[in-house]
Design brief:
Number of strands: 10
Number of helices: 0
Oligomer: single chain
Largest sheet: 4 strands, antiparallel
Shape: globular
Strand order of the largest sheet: 2-1-10-9
Length: 110
């Protein structure tokens, strides 16, 4: 893994290309793998209301994410509960035209 690509953990900051504000990814229950004492996220952690919160306004209207599938660009050779781990290059696609990406990995956030 390149030096600038890091595992994403609970509390990492995300931004949507169509949203007005960043938000943090959530994980109610750990998958059992940790980095710096924080649970690592996996490619299926994409549920609106559980993992993903609204990003403020979306093209002038309240954001209501409509996720089209699992995260892409995950770490295929780091498997947690049968799924690839999320990395800072992971991307999630919204049906409203936005691309959700990570601003931070969450490892050093409070």
């Amino acid at each position: 893994m390149a030096a600038d690509i890091r595992y994403v953990v609970r509390g990492a900051t995300m931004r949507c290309s169509k949203g007005s504000v960043p938000t943090k990814i959530n994980l109610p229950f750990s998958h059992g793998s940790y980095v710096n004492g924080k649970p690592v996220m996996i490619k299926t952690d994409r549920i609106v209301g559980t993992n993903i919160s609204p990003f403020g306004l979306c093209i002038g209207q309240p954001c209501c994410p409509m996720i089209l599938g699992d995260w892409i660009k995950f770490k295929k050779d780091t498997i947690i509960q049968g799924k690839g781990a999320l990395i800072t290059e992971s991307v999630l696609i919204c049906a409203r035209g936005g691309q959700i990406t990570f601003v931070t990995d969450g490892q050093n956030e409070g």
